[in-house]
């Protein structure tokens, strides 16, 4: 507990120093507010536009959660199929990895043409970005089970379903959560990227990505920085929420969470 408190304190001190350097640089160099607002100006803009900021944050949260949840369901299902049938893994798995190389900026206009602008299009963009890490990590965990353990289950006449659910799936949980952590970090990026193209169904109202463009066009730099800060906090929130669920699922039996907790 003392170690964690010390880490949090050090992190807070570093953050305070960075904010102080930012405020000092703006004051000393007399940087115009439209180029780099001071921390106070950003806080003032966030307070003044608080309802709009919360609305944009909520929209992006829904889009990121929807895309991430869909990618987890589809990714785990695909990984289970790949683990059960080697021929399917050899034929299809390489193409799922190609999702990581898809230039989402290039296909975003196509997605808008298919489903139209709005939340559904942004969720689809987020889903495509988040899917590959979950498939890759979960598949790796499922197929890397010690062969001796599999033979032990077979000696006790375990069915393929029992081997999958009672041996391979628990063994793959750490790598599954690794994939979810990666996808959780990029889910917000996917949502904001989708909003840059999918925009909004109402002028002046949308998620963080759309609001950042709108604020930039209106030369509201302070509010734009507040939106960027909100997106950063949302990404941190996703990451630490996944870490909490990982600890909840693994801390009783897996060494990775015990080492992280200092046990």
List the helices and strands and how they pair.
Layout: H1 2-29, H2 39-48, H3 50-84, H4 86-97, H5 104-115, H6 119-143, H7 147-155, H8 160-198, H9 208-217, H10 221-250, H11 255-260
Helix pairs in contact: 2-10, 3-4, 3-6, 3-8, 3-9, 3-10, 5-6, 5-8, 6-8, 8-9, 8-10, 9-10
Class per helix and strand makeup: mainly alpha
Strand fraction equals: under 5%
Quote the distance from N terminus to C terminus: 11 Å
What is the C-level CATH assignment of the largest domain? Mainly Alpha
CATH superfamily (homologous) name of the largest domain: MetI-like
Uncertain segments:
none
Query: What Rg is obtained from the alpha carbons, in whole angstroms?
Result: 22 Å
Number of strands: 0
Query: In DSSP terms, counting alpha (H) and pi (I) runs of 4 or more, how many helices?
Result: 11
Per CATH, what is the topology of the largest domain?
Answer: MetI-like fold
**Major β-sheet, in short?**
none
* CATH hierarchy: architecture of the largest domain: Orthogonal Bundle
**What overall form do the CA principal axes indicate?**
globular
Mean pLDDT: 81
Order of helices and strands: HHHHHHHHHHH
Q: How helical, in percent, are the residues?
A: over 70%
């Amino acid at each position: 507990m003392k170690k964690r408190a010390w880490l949090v304190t050090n992190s807070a001190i570093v953050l305070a120093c960075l904010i102080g350097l930012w405020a000092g640089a703006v004051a000393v160099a007399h940087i115009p507010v439209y180029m780099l607002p001071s921390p106070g100006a950003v806080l003032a803009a966030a307070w003044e536009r608080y309802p709009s900021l919360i609305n944009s944050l909520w929209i992006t949260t829904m889009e990121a959660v929807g895309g991430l949840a869909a990618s987890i369901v589809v990714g785990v299902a695909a990984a289970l199929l790949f683990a059960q049938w080697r021929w399917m893994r050899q034929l299809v798995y390489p193409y799922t990895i190609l999702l990581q190389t898809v230039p989402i900026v290039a296909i975003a206009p196509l997605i808008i043409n298919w489903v139209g602008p709005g939340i559904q299009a942004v969720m689809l963009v987020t889903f495509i970005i988040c899917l590959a890490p979950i498939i890759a990590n979960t598949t790796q965990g499922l197929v890397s089970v010690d062969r001796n353990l599999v033979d032990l289950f077979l000696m006790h006449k375990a069915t393929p379903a029992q081997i999958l659910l009672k041996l391979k799936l628990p063994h793959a949980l750490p790598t599954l959560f690794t994939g979810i952590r990666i996808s959780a970090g990029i889910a917000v990026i996917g949502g904001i990227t989708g909003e840059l193209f999918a925009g909004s169904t109402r002028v002046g109202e949308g998620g963080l990505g759309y609001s950042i463009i709108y604020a930039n066009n209106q030369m509201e730099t302070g509010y734009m920085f507040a939106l960027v800060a909100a997106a950063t906090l949302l990404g941190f929130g996703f990451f630490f929420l996944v870490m909490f669920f990982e600890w909840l699922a693994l801390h009783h039996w897996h060494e990775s969470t015990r080492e992280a907790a200092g046990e």
